[in-house]
Amino acid sequence: QMADPFLYNSGERSKYGCLGDEVQIEHIMAYVCRPSFFTDKAVIVIHDIFGWLFPDIRYIVDFIAGHGFIAICPDFFKGTEPWKTTDHWADFADWMKHHDPMKVDKEADVVLKYLKEQCGAKKIGVTGFSWGGMAAHHLMLKNPQLMAGVSLYGRIIRDSEERYNLLNPTFFIFGEKDHTISFDQITLLDEKLKQYCKVAYKIKVYPGQVHGFAQLKPEDMKPDDKPYIEEARKDMID
Fold first, then answer.
1. CATH of 21-237 given 3.30.530.20, 3.40.190.10, 3.40.50.1820, 3.30.200.20
2. Taking Cα atoms as reference points, which of 229, 236, 104 lies closest to residue 169?
3. Of 35, 63, 165, 218, whose Cβ has the fewest other Cβ atoms within 10 Å?
4. Which segments of 120-209 does DSSP mark as H helices, in order?
5. What's the burial of 219, exposed, middle or buried (CB within 10 Å: 0-12/13-18/19+)?
6. Residues in domain Dienelactone hydrolase (predicted)?
7. How much is the average pLDDT of 214-237?
8. b/e per residue, 186-202, with b = 16+ CB within 10 A?
């Protein structure tokens, strides 16, 4: 049996009333939430395979806005279907071919332009979860406009040494019990970054946590996991 590639329990979730707005930016839709005061700091939030409409990711956007950033989650799937919990894992590889986390540059540029020209943002970072963690890692290698990045449990793709030449400070968050990312991969990432990375980076593994742990809304958390989820989110904001 193949391990489910990005599966985490996306089962029962409490309802969530979003605080932000949906906007159309050129060819993509995006969910935006702003703090109550003016700020020139913004964060692009990259969703996982469940897409930009998933309540958990909207909660994260609102959470980041609550910490004083303009937060925006664009639809990186450009109107196509996200992965659904009812889909079959046998089709996942094929779905991934059409949803490549390394092909987010054009959308990132569109959103960066919007943040700078329409929102007055001057300092912009990126954070991504799972599929989005891979995309955030990719963008931190390619886009010098992003001043800081946080990649949460993005699978580590080892296609070349340039995977490690980050342009700006990047923080990698992993769960100890994530069955999609082995500890060996994390160790190798650390070794390679030591060797090739010229900017500050950090890797942190949170005890007992599974894939997708940092996205849960408070009422969906298990008491044992809550301190680690809160710590990971505080680390992300910091």
1. 3.40.50.1820
2. 236
3. 218
4. 131-142, 183-196
5. exposed
6. 29-235
7. 93
8. beebbebbeeebeeebe
Query: Which residue, chain included where needed, has tokens 């599974």?
Result: 210
Angstrom distance (rounded) from CA 13 to CA 115: 31
Spell out the domain ranges in the chain: 21-237
Which sign, positive or negative, has the C-alpha torsion 109, 122, 23, 169? positive
Rg (CA), the chain: 17
Q: What's the rounded mean pLDDT across residues 205-210?
A: 95
Is the four-CA dihedral 116, 119, 122, 125 of positive or negative sign? negative
Tens of pLDDT along 52-76?
Answer: 999 999 999 999 999 999 999 999 9
Determine how many CB atoms are found less than 10 A away from the CB of residue 94. 9
CA torsion 118-63-130-145 (nearest 10°) is: 30
